[in-house]
Amino acid sequence: MIVTIDGVAASGKSSVASGVASALSIPYVSSGLLYRAATLLALEAGTSLSDAPALLSLLGAAPLRLEPLAGGNRIYLDTPDCPRELTADAHTSAVDAGVSALAQLPQLREWVNARLRALTPPFVAEGRDMGTAVFPQARAKFFLVASPRVRALRRVKERVGDVEAVEQALIARDEQDQLQSHPAADAQIIDTSDLDLAGVIAAVMAGVQERA
Ligand SMILES: Nc1ncnc2c1ncn2[C@@H]1O[C@H](COP(=O)(O)OP(=O)(O)OP(=O)(O)O)[C@@H](O)[C@H]1O
Ligand SMILES: Nc1ccn([C@H]2C[C@H](O)[C@@H](COP(=O)(O)O)O2)c(=O)n1
After folding, report:
1. FRET partner for 154 with CA separation of 20 to 30 A, picked from 8, 13, 37, 63?
2. Model pTM score
3. What structural domains does the chain harbor?
């Protein structure tokens, strides 16, 4: 079984996917974390975020390991002499600002998608295009939305920042990501603006049960 949870930036995908995965006792996979880790390594190496051959060469030499833990995905760079967890560094405003450029490259999307399709079900997969491009065969598909202001207010609770600036950054990222961020025809769209996290998880679980 594969459940997909897609949605716009900071709509609650990771938190909801984690809750649903825990309720189903299966792992969840954050596709965004792979894009973020690739962006982080590129920024640190000074590699252009629009140079696909250089990026693939960089990633080909990087022993990345994604741990799809139900409580929260973690990603590691298993360099023999200096293993390192990248998860926190992959969730900074610098990576936020650059990741959409990298994610627009078809070769990088295929690099991510190949890693995702190599996983063995059951799992919950969250991102932008899990229910459309990556796992169109998924049994249950969901697409989360929320107003930019609500998303910004939630984001500044976890990362200090100015709500106005965060809201504008989210709107900009939505526009940059829109090519791959649209609900599958058979996805249930959930507006989380007026729902707490438990309420969204319950709505997804109800949808999963309906499709069981
Ligand atoms: N329905 C909700 N009510 C209140 N807070 C929420 C809700 N959903 C998520 N949050 C909180 O909003 C913040 C962003 O959620 P989360 O990181 O899961 O979003 P995301 O879509 O995965 O973000 P990104 O696109 O940046 O990966 C987190 O602090 C999370 O706990
Ligand atoms: N399936 C995906 C997942 C993510 N992206 C891009 C778009 C986002 O700006 C960025 C980070 O994702 P997030 O951690 O915010 O969910 O990666 C994508 O294009 N496709």
Report:
1. 37
2. 0.93
3. 2-211 (3.40.50.300)
